[in-house]
């Protein structure tokens, strides 16, 4: 991680040099200074559950609504795609002002539908997600000698067939004194935060505080509906409220109202503002993989180095023996020779469906470029968990940007296969711009209809659909066509040898070649197996994933292993006089996607045992299918391009009469 720390410091120095009068801020990364008594507003997000993976709107349950009405907060495209729906709430605090027994509201008597929905949400273990100053509410629970912590709190609990709701919330807000003498600008967030000394230019002066923690303890307290009928929101509750998180008292009943209240206390903390996300990034299990990842990287690198050394020595020995023969001896030994030297006239024979191969390779390289750039900037702290939706926004941006590369590569590769024929470059560029996005559109639209049918906030709004289509056809497609046009004018790679008119007969093989193709994906799987578990846990169990530095290293190692596996596999195929290496080199490394999909099913069966409902299972399998298709294209592109360049280099080194 030293490289990323040094690079981040270099960025900070550069940003400081570029300062003029104001500080340098990244969106959402600067501290909000509040004086004593300033109002703090809590926001609510979608209700979530790891049992269903279907988010719902907070106000789909009979919770208290703010006096000014429910208003949506400004959300970026990434937040909408993630299913976040951030809205205002009636919970309001005053900075550094403790309050207790604050009456919030009394709901209307529960209707049959409201009572049924509440019971369903409690059965499905839905969590309420609150935010204060961009910090999610976190709940702590002591178990034996250690603490468990997670974001949000449950809607309610079921005890002996009776449903109870958590209607009283005990908030604890951790604050830190605003360091106005030396610090006014912060770049990054979470584990990638740094401070820049700029001086105080806010002009507020005085004592100020910043929020560095937001904790919640949910309680079920039996309120007396009659005693609050004359109270207004934020009035003092007439009797003391004892918040006992272990006991439950407020049972929900059809035809009975619900009473909500809260209390808040402020605690001055030593936690500095740049480190306030550490509590979320150090959750249970977040460091289990540190030594495992390092061990896996060392083993895989060692094995890959051994394979590479042996492979290079074998190739050099074959070339040396082949080139030592003069023409007469070569002609005399043609019948005795075997292996890759006998497929000279067929090794560059065009594969079946060359356009589809070029499209899949180009789109795979595009996905790989997007992944590398996104993870690289995330490792530098530019896409931290504090910036919700930033990761998806970055992925969309880089995917569209690499459309130029995809268009160029697909046309260039097709011209190389067809020996310079540029006809149809526009058609193939159009196809590559619609291939993976078309598959994604079909999968996500199908899943979106399921979410729409469930009235979930995870469903992409129609307006967002129009935005995505506009990005596709107004930005991605034109950039791909531009790349295709450049590729049609660029020089292509000429073959070092001519292809025979009559294809060479392929000898009978001892083992089916496609069986070897499937087996080749096991080594790339070993590279990312451990990291895959934490990624899946982050997506489906709501855990915060933040070690993008490790993920970047794993990604680079995966690329190297995929290239080496495909090289070895292609060489072995040529040694048994099988010149049909094009598609097989693609799927040799791309077959790792099959194992990832099988692992996803295993994860569903053994780690998501509580996932219930056909819709939830369909969502999981649909998103998993979308992920493995992207992985197959990216890893397959690496394998094919490395094999293609290797074959071209290998036969360029052979003396041909």
Give a verbal description of the structure.
- InterPro entries: EMP70.
- Keywords: Endosome, Golgi apparatus, Membrane, Signal, Transmembrane, Transmembrane helix.
- Belongs to the nonaspanin (TM9SF) (TC 9.A.2) family.
- With 657 residues, the chain is α+β, with helices and mostly antiparallel strands.
- Helices cover 47% and strands 14% of the residues.
- The chain has three domains: 34-180 and 205-280, no CATH class; 294-337 and 516-652, no CATH class; 352-494, no CATH class.
- It has helices spanning 2-17, 77-82, 112-123, 278-281, 289-324, 327-332, 354-379, 390-401, 403-417, 425-453, 462-489, 513-519, 522-540, 548-575, 582-590, 592-606, 614-652; strands at 39-44, 87-94, 99-106, 127-128, 130-132, 135-136, 138-143, 146-151, 153-154, 156-159, 162-165, 168-177, 183-187, 194-197, 209-219, 259-268.
- The strands form six sheets. Strands 2-1-5-6 form a four-stranded antiparallel beta sheet, with no helix packed on it.
- α5 packs parallel to α14, α7 (354-379) packs antiparallel against α14 (548-575) and α14 (548-575) packs antiparallel against α15.
- The protein is elongated and about 100 Å long.
Share of β-strand residues: 5-15%
Strand order of the largest sheet: 2-1-5-6
- Summing up helix and strand content along with how strands pair, one would put the structural category as alpha+beta
Number of helices: 17
Global outline: elongated
- Give the integer mean of the pLDDT values: 82
Family: Belongs to the nonaspanin (TM9SF) (TC 9.A.2) family.
Protein name: Transmembrane 9 superfamily member
GO biological process, one term: protein localization to membrane
Transmembrane segments: 290-312, 365-384, 390-414, 434-453, 465-486, 514-540, 546-574, 586-605, 625-647
